[in-house]
Amino acid sequence: MKPVTSLVEALTLEEKVRLLTGRDLWSTSPIEKIGLRSIIVSDGPAGVRGTNWDERDPSLNFPSGSALAASWDLVLARRYGAALAAEARRKGVDVVLGPTVNLQRSPFGGRNFECFGEDPVLTADLAAAYVGGLQDHGVAAAVKHYVANDSETDRFTVDVRVAERVLREVYLLPFEKAVRESGAWLVMSSYNGVNGATMTENPLLETPLATEWGFDGVVISDWMAVRSLEAARAAQDLVMPGPDGPWGEALIAAVRRGEIDEAVVDRKVIRILTLAQRVGALSETPHQMSAEDGAALAREVAVEGTVLLENRDELPWDPARLKSVAVIGENAAWARTQGGGSAGVAPTRTVSPLDGVRAALPGVDVTYSPGAVLNQSVTELPLSGLTNPFTGEPGVRTRFRDASGVEIFAEDRLTTRLIYVGGDAPVSSSHSFELHTSYTPAEAGPVRLGFAVTGRARLYVDDLLFVEQDGPSAGHPLGAALTAAAPATDKWYLAAGRPVELRFVYDIASLGDSVDALFVRVGTQPVGGDDDDLLAEAARAATAADVALVVVGTNSLVESEGVDRESLALPGKQDELVKVVAAANPHTVVVVNSGGPVLLPWRHDVAALLIGHFGGQEFGHAIADVVLGTAEPGGRLAATWPAAETDAPVLDTTPRDGGIDYAEGVHVGHRAWLRQDVAPAYWFGSGRGYADIELLHAEAPETVGAGDTVTVDISLRNRSARPGKEVVQVYASRPDSTFDRPRRWLVGFAAIRLAAGESAEVAVEVPTRLFAHWDGDWCYEPGSYPLGIGTDAVDLPLSVNVTLIEHRSEGAGK
Ligand code: BGC
């Protein structure tokens, strides 16, 4: 194959510049004369959606980032990456837009579910493993969002003010590891600014990324993050999406006028062609890969990411002794398997905890009560009740019309929640959109029927106008628009088995010019006012059953891209629900189905408490595996969970004067909690299994050279008669340091599995780079570093002392 530099010589300036802006939403321009096909990118990061958001072409929906992080398992993260590679290949995708390696700096961060938790070291290791797993199979990772995109409020404009030391030691570390260790092929520049320069123009794209870390891949922009020609002078390589953008003609003219050197363009082109070579877009060398069963892996990750925080001799339940189980909670039947925004995929299937428990306990009486209303917005109608009036098959017909009312596109779909981003539908050339279906409710009862869209729309029921919205045209930033629309609904009484004709008409023109994405939700909203009945019914069901399983949580409207959270409390009356159920049945087990932390005021009053995170499509099976003891709850918290909102040391997600000051410096997550008197509900690293594993002894060399890695050998014993998993964590400290350091910080960890009664040794590698601090370069403060070894940020029964000496061995400086 020709070297890419010689291919560049064959291109005109116009061709080169065309390559620097996407061809459309999800691909780059092909250039036939050099044998270059289009490179296809896709979200990401907990599945591969492909270029269409379409339930007819579904994707594996893996547990979200915070669930994977809770496994603390790098081998699993690598397999997760490899499974995504297989999905990418199946969907014709070359680049997966992930992993998200920003930090859960504040518990209010809207995208916390996507991140790998609060800790830079855990995040960095998981990022490297994920990227390695993906790229080993010829599919590229785009590590995102570079950098300090840790909250969502005003994300397009917020300027993060953060000291260089803090950037290096905390927020850049995951990117550094993904690039230096796993050779990430892309990095995605974020919307926000850092210290006065928006990230697509920021000098951080050059240093440290290119110069120090040797990144030779592509800096891809977040969608619409490039806003100027100025970004072309920076180390920003690829503008997404396209075909329009601020470069194009303006860049060609600037080069022609001699304002921008053509070499600047060439460097970007070389990087894109290098990527093309890496993913096989310059030659048709199909990658062979044997994929493991994706659904089975999704289930395993969900189990490994489930954290057992309380267990008062309750779990695991013995299936042989159960006659009846009361499953309670809206999320028990409508499981949240993923968060909101661009990370979403159309799942192959979704196993709710109710489905999972029913499947695992065939002979047992499993009842269901919703208990509390949580989903305040419009939920799509169930496919089982929908008939496409044009075909008689399940589903809906959608139609696009031009300004004169002529139908220019129509298709048959399987959902009333439709997302047109890219794909075949002619959104930008259409004037209106229609959805037709016949809906036959399975159950009778009052609901609010309507839709949630931005702009002007109407819903007709049996040909009569039912709800109308004359909404303002709102901007459509990708991601936020998926969740932002307020519901427009009215009361309707459903008669079981009696079909109603629904016709939804959406005035696309009301959204303004150049609309290229459409988000439609037609369905029902719960009717308020019957909360007490729901609570009473749940309590009755709990009283009547041997045990109760309550699933509480958030949803993709509460935890979403585009918005930060307003509250950490569980939405609706879910706290009250747990209280009444726990009072009704002493065997009440609560599963929390949220991506980030929520408040758990009743945590001491329940028999057991599990954090299930957003557990992916197999979530329900995983919960059944864990509560019935078929599997160990493998998770340990990847973030510290506060007991009360105001206790959390770092809260701010709302910019002041256009900026957020990262005034806490390097004290993020548990490091910040360790500086204050108020303790959290649960520390970073917390969680336990069913087995009883004891940490016996730790040993490490007395001295280590700056830049070297020290190995801490830890012996453990499983004292119980069941196999188990432990996550051994090593925290460093530095008493009497000459500068401000965390009281304690994570420097190494290992997930280890022990058979019943087994003793074992585990070696945890601690790179001394994690003792160094940034002061214009990595500086090593010689002297004593006591290491605490244990199972969370405060439970550290073992310790060793390591003395750092100033020698720098060969190959140091990593
Ligand atoms: C998100 C990215 C995502 C991109 C494409 C943006 O709004 O911030 O994470 O990859 O959209 O969907």
pLDDT < 50 runs, ≥5 residues: 809-814
Residue fraction in strands: 25-35%
Number of helices: 19
Sheet with the most strands? 7 strands, antiparallel
Structural class designation? alpha/beta
| Mean pLDDT score | 94
Ligands: beta-D-glucopyranose
Total strands: 37
Explain this structure to me?
Residues 809-814 have low confidence and may be disordered. The protein is globular. The chain contains 19 helices and 37 strands. The protein starts with a helix and ends in a 6-residue tail after the last strand. The strands form eight sheets. Strands 13, 14, 15, 17, 19, 20 and 22 form a seven-stranded antiparallel sheet that branches. Strands 9-26-25-24-10-11 form a six-stranded mixed sheet, with helices on both faces. Strand 14 and strand 15 (407-413) form a beta hairpin. The chain has 814 residues and is α/β, with parallel strands linked by helices. Helix 2 (13-19) packs across helix 10, helix 4 (74-90) runs antiparallel to helix 12 and helix 12 packs across helix 18. Residues 43-44, 97, 144, 222-223, 342, 478-479 line the site of beta-D-glucopyranose.
